[in-house]
Amino acid sequence: MSPSLARRAVEVLSTADAAEKARLSRAHAADWFAARAAGTPLPVGRAEPPLRPARPDRPELLDPREVPKRRPGSVEGRTALLHAVAHIELNAVDLHWDVIARFAHVPMPAGFYDDWVKAADEEAKHFGLLSDCLAARGSHYGALPAHAGMWRAAEDTAGDFMGRLAVVPMVLEARGLDVTPDMIALFRKHGETDAVAALETIYAEEVGHVAYGAKWFHFLCGREDRDPKETFHALVRRYFKGALKPPFNEEKRAEAGLPPDFYWPLAADAG
Ligand SMILES: [Fe+2]
Ligand SMILES: [Fe+2]
């Protein structure tokens, strides 16, 4: 019998090689959607995810303060930026599969898994697009140091499904919507059209990821008869260290189902 979705999720999480992790993510997504289309969906099942996903020996993971700062005006600086985004995308692959395995005991409609598997597939695609950009610059994922601590949000919310949705898609991925337009403008200014195209694909698809997070967060609030805005504020204050940073991309956040009264009060906390 075909392995359950949760077992497949654990397989992705337990795979250290980055390219293989991304390949498996896409292959399992293709299997999931083929089975759904055939009317014989894969079981969600149960499987124990590792506390931390397996990762390659390289890149070296450093405290964010120790990661060398490079000027984005230089070619090296822009390559380092693409490397940093590749690291975020690989982490996002693990984050999506981790949700599937870790919260498999919470009964959810099949549409939830459709959204999450699609996002996991897209994160793997994003990692591939950035790997191609790095290769075109004579580099590769692992050639530069990367931020440690990316898994922190996942560990902090390992026992709280709603907390995970609040912090990962609705705070961290939403932050991506705020900062990506400036990144696209930077590469456009320097005529690096491959990076512009990759980042435009990422930007368009990340709106969907935030939207899936908001949609299923509201679903869970509704099921438990909790006020979504109050619950979101309480969970972000509990699990996310520090205030949210304006300026916010209000247009794309709105498109993703995040209204201003969700995030502005958390930014004001900095005040
Ligand atoms: Fe992504
Ligand atoms: Fe994403």
From TrEMBL:
Residues 54-69 have a biased composition (Basic and acidic residues). Residues 43-74 are annotated as: Disordered. It holds the Pfam family DUF455. SUPFAM superfamilies: Ferritin-like. Coiled coil: none annotated. InterPro entries: DUF455 (IPR007402), Ferritin-like_SF (IPR009078), UCP012318 (IPR011197). This is DUF455 domain-containing protein. It comes from Rhodosalinus halophilus.
